[in-house]
Amino acid sequence: RKAFLARFGIDSDGRQEFIALPPLLPHAMGPAKLGEDLFCDRRLAQSQRRTCAACHRLNEGGVDGELHGGVLTRTVMNASFSPVFLHDGSVTNLSDVVAQMMTRRDRAGGGDLEKIVRKLGADEKMLARFKSCYETGLTTTNLVDALVQHNRTLLSPRSQFDRYWSGKSDALDAAQKEGMELFRRRNCLSCHDGPALGGLRVSNGRKVPVLRGLGSRRVYLTDGSRTDLGAVLTLMPQGNLEGTERAALVSFLKSL
Questions:
Q1: Which of 47, 71, 115, 210 could make an SS bond with 198 (beta carbons 3.0 to 4.6 A apart)?
Q2: Residue 220: beta bridge partners?
Q3: CB 119: neighbour CB atoms within 10 A?
Q4: Do residues 247 and 230 make contact, with C-beta atoms less than 8 angstroms apart?
Q5: Are residues 72 and 66 in contact, defined by beta-carbon separation less than 8 angstroms?
Q6: Are 65 and 219 in contact (CB under 8 A)?
Q7: Is the pLDDT assigned to residue 154 strictly greater than 80?
Q8: Which residue(s) pair with 45 in the sheet?
Q9: Strand runs (DSSP E) across 179-228, as ranges?
Q10: What's the chain's average pLDDT?
């Protein structure tokens, strides 16, 4: 775990239960800015009404609260901390996920990376921007990389919990601190661990969701069947929390 955290510039012996998110991750600034603009570019999708940002709304926790192919949109926030992707964890490389989002029509993609490159290549300003960022200019590989570099900038804003874990003892109130202790005692950390509190493994055929930024989302579970966070906690852990315990745990989760 120490080696895993070191990949993100996090200096830890790997023993801490909780880890404050770093302010940023290593990334290439020029390509990341290019990727930020591509994230909102309609030429990457099969429909002119679609963009990456349409499904991954950054002001709503990186999701849109909608089902796509029967699966709730997964957040793009903090995705760099995960070694597995998609709802079932079937992809193990972020670049491959980005490519899939742009090509698979069931994910609103445009069908072919070369086709997308040709569309972008008709834009002289876009060609110049790629050339300024990459020696090889506009290619399918560089297109994917620009979006990956942008993703590395997508971290949850510094939260109440981060301030508390960094030493500000009054950043969490009594109910949130009680919820944090419940989170420990109920062994939630066995699945929801790491900097993003989740996303590191697959459980029962589903990628464990990250809990960071949970308070900004409005729909939960893979099938989007819950719109109330307290209702989710009737299913886990073991679904046997008292009402006051559930309220405290919800309060803690919203502090993340």
A1: 210
A2: 226
A3: 15
A4: yes
A5: yes
A6: yes
A7: yes
A8: 109
A9: 202-203, 206-207
A10: 90
